[in-house]
Amino acid sequence: MNRSVVSLTDVSSYVPGEPVGADYYMQFAESDTLRDNLMFRAPKFRHHVGTDETAADMIEQAAQGIIERHGREVIENVDILITHTQLPDIPFCGAGGGIAHRLGMHPTTVLDLHNGGCAAFILGLNVARQLLAAGAGRTALIAIAQNAAGQVFDQPAVRGKPQASVPGDGAAVGLVTRSDHSPILDVECRTYGQYAGDMTYAVDPYRKWWQPGPGAGYIGFTDDKITKVLARGNRQVPEVALAVCHRIGVSAADIGLLVTNQPNRVFLRNWREALEVPESRHMDTFDQYGNLFGAGIPINLDRAIAQRRVSPGEVVVMAGFAHAGDFAGAAAIRWGGPPR
Fold it and tell me: A GO biological process this protein is involved in (predicted)?
């Protein structure tokens, strides 16, 4: 075995609570100029984080599949922990320390990522691959928690907005090792800093997010912003996916499974059409879980593996973009089959 090869060895995931149907939001729906926008067509179902459920709680549940298949000692001996939490439980603090303690880990490196957004799993793969290949350790755990749906978008003052019915909550972890089981073939990460200010947090009446006052916070969408985000997302995800395919010497037709983030049905359709990947080879759980933000890619990959949607030896391409288009990434692995 080539010890410089780094693999995404396994993934496991967790979704909280019972499914929340689209009719739940219909009872709160308000008249809004964005009501009929394609960006906000509600999924049939999604899940909400529990009232007192923390990001560490969610990651602990998500890690159980890894523990069952590999043993608790594999988790406890992880060298590098990389986390992304959509809504940190405590201001100023990432979730990494709490997650490490909960899982009995003593990693030499803990990194809490924020800029990766809906493509955070790919960013985490890139960082883990580079650190492990450089000799910083033998194993890494990437832990992603999406917990904003039941906390931000279900606030009484927000749940009537079109944007509220789309997100869902869930968590996933990926075990990355120095091995050749399911090698990471390549990763492409691109930052578009010029768009970083286009995602805004809105409160009516206006105040900074940390200031006390009336009104609940939500994402500041307008028709103009939505048009720009649609154009960027439609372009960026196929671009980064094709860049990876080109470097590893495969065509889009050779993709065994495409796994993307899942903002809405429009993006999912446009991405597979742009890449000419049939629906049967594009993992889509939007109507089960809604927009899972950064947890979407690893949860979808876990579901695909459980459903035998990918066979040993096939190339899996993961791709996504974040926020209003300020980051995009893609990664390819050659799936080695269920962990042996």
Answer: fatty acid biosynthetic process
